[in-house]
Design brief:
Chains A, B: Pfam families: NUDIX (PF00293), WHD_NrtR (PF21906). Chains A, B: This is NUDIX domain-containing protein. Two copies of one chain form a homodimer. With about 300 residues, chain A is an alpha+beta fold. Helix content of chain A is about 20%, strand content about 40%. Chain A binds a DNA duplex (27 and 27 nucleotides) through helix 5.
Chain lengths: ~300, ~300
Amino acid sequence: MDIEQLRDKQGLTETEFLESYDASIYERPSVTVDMLIFTVMDEAKENYRKLSEKSLKLLLVKRGVHPYLGQWALPGGFVTQTESLDEAALRELKTETNVDEVYMEQLYTWGDVSRDPRTRVISCSYMALVDGSLLEVKAGDDADEARWFNVSYRVLEEKKTLLGKDFVFEKVVRITLSNHTDTLEAVVKVIEKYVGKAFMVEREMVVANGIAFDHAEMIQYAVERLRNKIEYTDIAFNLMPELFTLSELQQVYEVTLGKELLSAAFRRKIANMVTETNQFTKDAGHRPAKLFRFNPNWRYM
Amino acid sequence: MDIEQLRDKQGLTETEFLESYDASIYERPSVTVDMLIFTVMDEAKENYRKLSEKSLKLLLVKRGVHPYLGQWALPGGFVTQTESLDEAALRELKTETNVDEVYMEQLYTWGDVSRDPRTRVISCSYMALVDGSLLEVKAGDDADEARWFNVSYRVLEEKKTLLGKDFVFEKVVRITLSNHTDTLEAVVKVIEKYVGKAFMVEREMVVANGIAFDHAEMIQYAVERLRNKIEYTDIAFNLMPELFTLSELQQVYEVTLGKELLSAAFRRKIANMVTETNQFTKDAGHRPAKLFRFNPNWRYM
DNA sequence: AGAATAGTGTCTTTGAGACAATATTTC
DNA sequence: GAAATATTGTCTCAAAGACACTATTCT
């Protein structure tokens, strides 16, 4: 049967139905995208012979409008009727960083009723990974200023409570965001409840010092995802320039994972993900290192 | 400084700003939740001595209204202004299956502009895993009927195209959904593009025979997530009854992964996730098996 | 006895952690 | 030569694939 001839209970065809459909009768939430834009940058060198330390950075903007006026928030904005979520995320990324050719991935959608005091807002968070070189940050529309913050992520407590067959797993994470002028601290509690056959994850902000909305929770979620994914995918290379040494790559893994790695094991692990070039670093104050590039033939699984 | 005294460029405090805020001036999309409700059920026994085969099932509803009238869709519905996304998902789950104490997880949010011919609709998909026993399915409001479909997921083609340093990874998946009365077939192409420093995943429906909206893409995404997560988490136990044999557990792994497993290796892998009881199956036509339950002390990582 | 599933033992391969050892450059 | 990083080698341990073997019940 021709689909166009199908009639519903009111006797309408699909075309007739769509012509008579009034979308305005339902109340609708606002939808925004919020961007977690990460990069890894070099800090100043301690000593001319040592390697420069790297650190994981996240871009935040200072709010110039209510609500949370003067606090720091993730860059983001409303999704318009004529763009997809991905397009809105790309637009926001471009607005804030002036780059658009980067790795981008949707993370999670935040839908609590009172997340935003203005009105009902549902926010879809995206993570972008940017090569630290050649970054030019400009402030967006409704932001006084955009700044990179060093990210420190520390698990303060992990606790499991058993009640018969039910159990609750709680993890308390402290996130410290800092740069030359500001230090923001957030403590987020992640609660996984298994009660009977029900399972649910909840997040709770214990402290959100200077961080707007529920953005501290989004940051906690994003860092966790980044840490998980760097272990089994190639996303780390999106934080790297075209050519890099294995020590630089290791440093990027170390700052995102927040722990030191043994170089022998690290080199074995990433051996298939890189191709060597015949170029070397020079003037380093010590033995030069071979430069590598990403091996596009690598694939996980 | 007291936050309440902060004034914006118009000289308003936060309270004054919120009182004057008019949310209606921006056009807003509709937001829905779509539920991927999976279960594993026994099929009829071939032979009285053999074990009953299990199969992975997904719940679909036949649409009784336009658009896609008469086609099969994921259960779902609009998110109201007074409920969170999780609450809306839980409400839809309860409406369709009459259960609510189950595992539930947000998957992905689908935001293409023309996903729905009625109006701009953004859909947040959730996965729920239900123990097959004690399921009572009832139809929802705008659905003629709800039915369980067997899920078959088959990768037809995997292809990588290299163009210098850029490359495209394409995967073509065929999903067949079937029960006694209907067989639906979908072919979804997943495209991962790495062009320059840009990375993006796209999905494309090649065939979506009898499946409404972009729900075939959602199903492809969900099965992939389920398959990944069953390998390194305990979610499989949400598909099991309280007591089960290791063979039954293995069957659940096999039908969700779509491949056979070696029982020696399987038993080693899940050894720490289960606790034995002193009960056994009986009247099975062969050697009885010890019954196990989930070990709540197990934790991954 | 035969059918069918339940459950164990062991050999091999693979990958990661630990740590020692060697190599190369600049100052 | 000293400082500093680069790079390789090897021992050990843990997990998973492969496959053979033993055990138990019902008809």
